Amino acid sequence: MLLKRLPDAVDANPAKVAVGIVKIILQIKDVRLYFGHRRLTNSGCQEVKGNIDAVDQRIISTVDQLRAIEDARHGWKPNSDKELRAVKSFESTLIKEYGNLIKLKEQSIMRKIAAHEESKGEIADIFQRINQAREQLVRTLLRHLKPAHSADHKYELEGKNQSLRRSVCTPGTRVRIRDDITRWANDTSSESSSVYWLVGQAGSGKTTIAYTIARRFEFAGDADDKIVLGGNFFCSRQMKETRSVTRIVRTIAYHLARRCKAFADSLDGTDFDIIHQGVRAQLQKLLIEPWRRVQSAEATQMPHFLVIIDALDEIDGEGGSVFLRDLLDSINKYGLRGLKFFATSRPDPGLVEHLESFPNKQFYHLQQVPMEEAEADITAYLNAELPNLQGTQELKSLVGQAAGLFIYAATVAKYLGKCSLPEQLGRISRLPPSGIPQSRKDTSLLDILYLQVLQDAFADFEDVDIDFDRRLKIMHAFLCSAEPIPINIVAKLLFPPEDPDFTETISHVLASLHAVLYTQNHMVLSYHKSFTDFMFDQNRAKCFWCNTRQFHLLLSNSCFRVMDIGLKFNIANIESSFILDQDNPALPAAIKKNIPPVLRYSCFNWGYHLANTDSRKLVDTLSRFLKLPVLFWVEAMNLVGSRGLCERMLRSAHMFGAALSTPHLYISSLATWHPRSVLSQGWNIHFPGIPNFVHASEGRSTLMTITIGSDVNAVAISSDNKHIVSGSRDHTIRVWDASTGEELKVLKGHSSSVSSVAFSSDNNDNKWIVSGSYDKTVRVWDASMGEESKALEGHNSLVSTFTFSSDNKQIVSSLYDETVQVSASTARHASFQYVRQKSKQPSTHTGWLLSTGSDFHYLMFVPLAANLPDPSNILTIPQSRVSSVDFTSSSLGPEWSNCFSYMC
């Protein structure tokens, strides 16, 4: 009875649950293999074999996935609440399905389970649910790679099932080059090159070919294919993440991990912080090293994956060329057997020369396509796009004018496509005749075509300077935007609120420019980079030229204007500082209402426009912004989940942890800025209600040196400044005269090193001294008598630090197990009790100071930045620059918004 081999009991440890499931699956798999290698002579065994085969695919796909659960889970800590929830969900699924298998075990023996359709279906459903849960967990954990989803050939804008305007090759076109690439991709022999580099001028059709190949190996592969699409990155200057070279490797690694389980397993343990380093480091840690481990483990059944990287010339700066050079060098050095790379870009003579030195290479230049073949392809394309012109002399004329340049044909098709036949013939007649260009690098053909498109679009306004300039500015805005944006955002950026609504005007401009710009899901994009190249070149674009530096200056000012109007303190009207953002159900709706799209764009992109203009012209604007509005900007960015874009500012302001609760960007982060910092002096008068975070004095001369004879771990000074108390490694607490340095008392009672000491601030003679120790106790001493009053035992970890509350009624201690304990201290012989907070305090929230009671509150976050003290040293004078935190004048909880005042 196979299932009776299961453990009869299992605890709630998810790792053990996973191992139990693995054992079940392995046993089922072994039964399948057993029956598969012997002759089955009775109908019962045949039935068992048939039903086992029915779930065999799910069993096999699940067994290897669950093998590593125990090792992966052991000692692992989530990096975020989202990760924690994902892991908990997966564990819950494992436990539930384990229980289902136990029930099946109790119902019958293996033969009966496998023989009945109902039970067989239950087994199949169990594995399907486990697989679905695992895939969801993998997606969550791989998000740390931060891939560029919009670079995927399958990317859809805003989830509306509308992909970017890419299309496959028209049937019957580019047949030879596509067949050549397909043969290369399917050649998995060691003699075949690992890289195929397709080179061509702007508009030669590289992206269309790459897109066709991607779809071919993702969706419509041939039965004889030996390779599948493992990853892809379609570069585009139109989106931030698709023009960033640092996104390429991490995106490919993400795709490959989703496709190849062995690679995903090999990534386990990789420090994903590598994504913040350069391309070469990412190649090494996210691709080369993990894949080489796959090579070692899968020597006999090596998988083969195709990686496509398109339009590297659209990467910012020289990043595309640098990436391709690093990739070529890595492949030449390590081989990476099983991976093949198909890349496209414009010509790069330096890279061509570099590639020529490689012993094994595959290189194709689209300029090598014979003119007759290019013209035949363009004829087929135009016949499909302009059916009204099939067989006409006009179409033959257009083919000749294209001179083998696909972007010319594509632009003409869009220019004429929406017109009736008479309108098409009229537009063709207005196209200036063009001679054959001297070389395919010659842009004169495109220049003539683009100028004609623009002249038609602006024909009605050439004599009206205001209307012409306004429409030209609208077009330039779409070309210079940091990301694709809708019409209403452009209207609000270009025209102040007091101006008329120009939304309809913008729509008319776009309609007239349909040959070069298009709208999809309300976002405006350009069809091809060759048009922006044309528009940004004064010699080519003539009167339509876009002066990018001047226009980015205009957009920078527009962003600051929008932020000046829209940003404010507590923009989302958060009611209390005692809860985290994730626990505030009303917050998403408030964010959507109070941070509209134009404000969101401005917050995200003012830095982009500033970097592309002469920032010296914005000195005054920046100065005003950095005094107070910058804080409101950080608040808004935190609310929309993009505080990482403020990383440098957040690091200098010590705001990382406090970002879990937007009110604490003010209550905690601003409070911990040193009051002498330049930025603090700009905003501090506006925040009278934040906690007083007192920094210890720095750089003062030594007044006295007291030699103790043992390492000193902690020191405190009495409120009247007359006494000093020290805690030492020799287990003692010593009281000293602060004026003379004379030792007054030695307090003994701890059995281990004393880690922290503190005086109460009573105004009578019965002052208390409290000490914490690595012996897991906190002890209260009568300062005047030198006697131990009470030992607070029950701590489950080493005591790190503690302090008295301002009314001396409570002692708050922090432990090395990330807990906070609060004890009463109302009288000399009081019954001391403590409240443990560990069960309430998420482990990922280390650094929070919490209130006590059943309904705990987040009072303050003490940052973990390198140049601020660790919470374990917050209130220890010699180990920290911080001496105390005073909440007496603070506005917290429902009153938190009172911490700010414009009028101070």
From TrEMBL:
CDD domains: MLKL_NTD. The keyword Chloroplast does not apply. WD repeats lie at residues 712-746, 747-791, 792-822. Keywords: Repeat, WD repeat. This is NACHT domain-containing protein. Residues 194-348 form the NACHT domain. It comes from Pholiota conissans. PROSITE patterns: NACHT, WD_REPEATS_1, WD_REPEATS_2, WD_REPEATS_REGION. Pfam families: NPHP3_N, WD40. The keyword Repeat applies.
